[in-house]
Amino acid sequence: MEFSFTQEEELFRKSAREFVDRYVKPNWIELDDGKYKLIDIIQRMGEVGLLGIPFSSRYGGGDGSFTMVALATEELAYGDPSLATAVYYLLNNAWPFMVQRHGSDSIKEEVLPLVASGKAFIGIASTEPQGGSDVASFKLEAKRGGSKWILNGEKNIVTGISLITNYLEEGGFVTIGRTGPIEAKHRGLTVFLPLIKRHGKTMEGFEYSDYEEIGRRGLPTGLLRFKDFEVEDSQVMGEVNGGFKIAMEGFDLARTMIAAASIGATKWLLDEGRKWIKERQVFGKPIASYEGISFKYAELATRLEAAELLMFKAVWAADKAFLRGDNVDILEVATLGAMAKMTAVELAVDAALEVMKWFGGMSYFKELPEARVLLSALSYYVGAEGAANIMRLIVARNKIGKEV
Ligand SMILES: Cc1cc2nc3c(=O)[nH]c(=O)nc-3n(C[C@H](O)[C@H](O)[C@H](O)COP(=O)(O)OP(=O)(O)OC[C@H]3O[C@@H](n4cnc5c(N)ncnc54)[C@H](O)[C@@H]3O)c2cc1C
Fold first, then answer.
1. pLDDT of residue 1
2. Is residue 164 part of a domain?
3. Which of 118, 206, 272, 333 is deepest in the core (most CB within 10 A)?
4. Domain-embedded: residue 56
5. pLDDT tens digits, one per residue of 295-324
């Protein structure tokens, strides 16, 4: 076993780090305050070739790996620990990759080159107002109308809607719709790719409103309502009534890289925290000399090392399953992805709370940036891409057995 990356991966990490130092680090606080626009970073990423890494070169992608995506995601989260940039990046790799895997040829040819050049965003519209965890009970209606599919209903807490409508040429969401009776549960779900903007034109048949977020404010999230929204057959992903498996694959993949984002932010927290505890003098000594502080640092640094190893194991399993076609059970990606997300997200939240205590009372004020990281990491703690208990449910079910 080798704990190292290939030369290509190291070079890619270096170029991602250089990009982050130049364009992300100087702007992250203004991005979080809404005074700097994510689109400026996205366009530059497109120009320097940081996007579309795991897509095929046939669709303008880099023929790269999810390991590379995870390395870049970590760097982006280190440079923007409010996570907006890293979340945009990981979503816009995971969900368009599902389009490459399950979409029609015409939709792949239309959308993927635009994603890879920073002109399109493909996110996920899964959660509904009555709840996000119980996917098998989703209701968004998808009915046949002439030669098209017609979508009606609401998807709640959807990231990236106004990013598409305001700034991009094209975009939409991998959307889970009900095509079979509710009693059919997960066997009556189909995945569609409704594009809310196409060739620069905003489509008819949807409304949205953004929520006011407490963290990761550079990337908008809101409510999406479809009203007789028309979808062509070419926008169906996979088989009709076979959507559940596709959606789960997407979540499994995305979660491995959410762990990378949480780890990047934790690295930033611990680096800032370490500098501070060596510098801050209380009772005549640096606070790092008190075991109440240094032992906490040691515990967090140890958890960080463990979480990063787990994350790269999950990403390695995803590379094997999705890109190398090795005979990897998708349940292994699901289990490792859930473990990695759970571990890394809980670490980021714990680290933010601890590091804020090291900075003392001033950490409560916006004059210091650490609280921004807490509020952003909480997005993944309370729900995004699966609530904490659902990660435990996946691990328990896959390790103990479905019967319990
Ligand atoms: C910032 C942010 C961005 C998001 N972006 C998107 C997006 O782009 N697209 C999208 O579709 N969704 C998005 N979401 C929504 C997210 O996927 C959901 O919040 C998540 O799936 C949980 O659904 P819910 O919030 O409706 O909670 P519910 O499903 O109502 O669950 C409520 C609570 O019950 C717990 N629970 C549920 N079932 C069990 C059980 N069997 N055992 C024990 N506990 C259980 C859950 O862990 C949770 O704590 C986002 C969320 C956030 C916070």
1. 80
2. yes
3. 333
4. yes
5. 999 999 999 999 999 999 999 999 999 998
Torsion from C-alpha of 106, 107, 113, 114, nearest 10 degrees: 130
Give the residue among 56, 95, 51 at the shortest CA–CA distance from 72. 51
Q: Quote the ligand 1 centre to 73 CA distance (angstroms).
A: 22
In a domain, 12, yes or no: yes
Of the CA atoms within 13 Å of residue 333, those in its CB half-sphere come to 25
Query: What span, in angstroms and rounded, lies between the C-alpha atoms of 175 and 1?
Result: 39
Q: How many domains does the chain divide into?
A: 3
Which residue blocks in 291-387 are alpha helix, DSSP H?
291-318, 330-359, 370-382
Q: Which of 174, 166, 165 is nearest to 127 (CA)?
A: 174
Q: Is 1 exposed, middle or buried (0-12, 13-18, 19+ CB in 10 A)?
A: exposed
Mutation pick for ligand 1 pocket among 90, 157, 225 (CB with most ligand atoms within 8 Å): 157
Q: What angle do CA 78, 81, 86 make, to 5 degrees?
A: 75
Residues in contact with ligand 1 (CB, 6 Å cut-off): 123-127, 131-133, 157-159, 221, 379, 382-390, 393
Domain extent, residue 104, equals 7-120
- Closest CA relative to residue 51, chosen from 59, 315, 246, 325: 59
The upper half-sphere exposure of residue 53, i.e. CA atoms within 13 Å in the direction of its Cβ, equals 26
Same domain assignment for residues 270 and 373:
yes
On whether the CB atoms of residues 53 and 72 are closer than 8 A, the answer is yes
pLDDT tens, 103-160?
999 999 999 999 999 999 999 999 999 999 999 999 999 999 999 999 999 999 999 9
- CB neighbour list of residue 38: distance below 8 Å, 6 or more residues apart: 31, 84, 85, 88, 163, 218, 219
* CA R_g for the chain: 21
Report the share of the chain in percent with pLDDT over 70: 100
CA of 128 to the centre of ligand 1 (A): 9
> What is the average pLDDT value for the chain, to the nearest integer?
97
Distance 342 CA to ligand 1 centre (A): 14
Q: Which two tokens stand for residue 403?
A: 């019967």
Residue 185 CA to ligand 1 centre (angstroms): 18
